[in-house]
C-alpha cells in the first residue's frame, strides 16, 4: 500500500507539471498573436464591441477580437441596407484570409455569408498581405511615393494615406510616424473619381446616410464636400461614387480612435490628415 500510495502521488505530480507546461505554452502562443489596444479605448466589450487581449512584445502587430453580440447595437446591424456578412466587416478580398489565419476557419468559405452565428471573431489591425507594399515608417512611404510634407504637416500625429498598389488600393494609417492600421480600400470609379490631395478629416454621424444616393455610410468621416471615408463594400477596386470605402471593423476602429473635434480642441492637436495620392495608377510597388 505504501508503494502504491507514493506511486500515485508521483504520477499526480508529473501530471500537474505537464498540465502547467501545456497551459503556459498555449497561453504564450495566444498572447503572442494579440496585444492590448492603445489608450485603453477598447477596454470593455460593452463600450466598443472589441475585446482587448493583453500586452505582448513591443514589435508584435495588433490582433483585435470583436464580440458579435456587441455589433448588434452598431450601424452594421441597425442601419437598413448594411449586409450582415463577413465581407462587410473585413473586406470581400480579405475576409477569407482573416477567417482562416486568425479564426481557425476550415472548409468552404463565402464572404457573403452571415457572421451572426459566431460568438466573436479576430482580425489584424494591419492586414499582412499588403505589408510588402507599405513600410512601417511614414518617412519611408513618403519617399516611395515621392511626397513632400512641410515640417508643420509632419508634426501631425495622425496621418492617413490612400494609394494604389500593384494589387489594389490600400489605406494606411500612421500614428506618430509608425504604421498602425493597413487595409484594402475602394475609392470612386474612373467616371466618379475620388478627390485627390491633402485634406483634414472631420467626424460625421456614426449612422450617416448619403443625401444624394440614400446609401448607408456607417462611421463616416468627411474628407471634403461630398467625399467621405466610410464603411461599405470593399474589394480593393474602384466601386464608389467618389467616397473612399473601408471594411467595417477597420473603419469603426478609425472612427473611434482618431480625434474628433472636441478632442482636438481640448488636447490642442490638429485634425487627422488624409493624403489621397494618385489613386488611378499604381504608385506602390514591392519593396521587400
What are the defining features of this structure?
single chain; 288 residues; alpha+beta; five-stranded mixed beta sheet; four-stranded mixed beta sheet; 22% strand
Order of helices and strands: HHEEHHHHEHHEEEEEEEEEEHHE
Strand percentage lies at 15-25%
Q: Report the principal-axis shape.
A: globular
Rounded radius of gyration (Å): 22 Å
Write out the CATH superfamily name of the domain at 133-276: L,D-transpeptidase catalytic domain-like
CATH fold call of the domain at 133-276: L,D-transpeptidase catalytic domain-like
In short:
The protein is an alpha+beta fold. The protein has ten helices and 14 strands.
Q: Strands, helices and their partners?
A:
Layout: H1 2-32, H2 45-48, E1 50-51, E2 63-67, H3 68-71, H4 75-78, H5 86-90, H6 95-103, E3 120-124, H7 138-145, H8 151-154, E4 158-165, E5 168-175, E6 178-184, E7 197-200, E8 202-203, E9 207-209, E10 216-218, E11 221-224, E12 227-231, E13 244-246, H9 248-257, H10 261-267, E14 273-276
Parallel strand pairs: 4-14, 12-13
Antiparallel strand pairs: 1-2, 2-3, 4-5, 5-6, 7-14, 8-11, 9-10, 11-12
Amino acid at each position: 500500500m505504501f508503494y502504491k500510495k507514493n506511486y500515485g502521488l508521483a504520477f499526480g505530480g508529473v501530471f500537474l507539471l505537464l498540465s502547467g507546461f501545456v497551459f503556459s505554452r498555449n497561453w504564450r502562443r495566444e498572447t503572442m498573436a494579440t496585444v492590448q489596444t492603445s489608450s485603453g479605448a477598447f477596454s470593455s466589450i460593452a463600450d466598443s464591441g472589441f475585446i482587448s487581449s493583453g500586452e505582448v512584445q513591443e514589435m508584435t502587430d495588433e490582433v483585435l477580437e470583436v464580440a458579435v453580440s456587441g455589433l448588434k447595437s452598431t450601424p452594421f446591424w441597425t442601419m437598413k441596407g448594411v449586409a450582415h456578412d463577413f465581407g462587410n466587416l473585413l473586406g470581400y478580398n480579405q475576409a477569407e484570409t482573416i477567417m482562416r489565419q486568425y479564426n481557425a476557419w476550415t472548409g468552404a468559405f463565402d464572404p457573403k455569408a452571415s457572421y451572426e452565428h459566431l460568438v466573436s471573431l479576430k482580425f489584424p489591425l494591419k492586414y499582412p498581405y499588403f505589408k510588402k507594399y507599405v513600410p512601417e515608417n511614414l518617412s519611408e512611404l513618403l519617399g516611395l511615393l515621392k511626397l513632400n510634407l512641410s515640417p508643420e504637416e509632419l508634426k501631425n500625429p495622425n496621418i492617413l494615406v490612400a494609394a494604389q498598389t500593384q494589387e489594389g488600393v490600400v489605406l494606411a494609417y500612421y500614428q506618430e510616424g509608425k504604421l498602425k492600421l493597413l487595409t484594402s480600400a475602394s475609392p470612386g470609379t474612373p467616371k466618379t473619381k475620388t478627390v485627390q490631395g491633402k485634406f483634414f478629416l472631420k467626424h460625421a454621424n456614426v449612422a450617416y446616410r448619403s443625401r444624394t444616393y440614400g446609401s448607408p455610410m456607417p462611421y463616416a468621416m468627411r474628407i471634403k464636400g461630398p467625399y467621405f471615408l466610410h464603411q461599405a463594400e470593399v474589394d480593393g477596386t474602384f466601386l464608389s461614387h467618389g467616397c473612399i470605402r473601408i471594411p467595417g471593423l477597420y473603419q469603426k476602429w478609425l472612427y473611434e480612435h482618431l480625434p474628433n473635434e472636441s478632442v482636438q480642441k481640448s488636447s490642442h492637436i490638429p485634425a487627422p490628415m488624409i493624403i489621397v495620392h494618385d489613386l488611378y495608377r499604381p504608385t506602390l510597388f514591392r519593396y521587400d
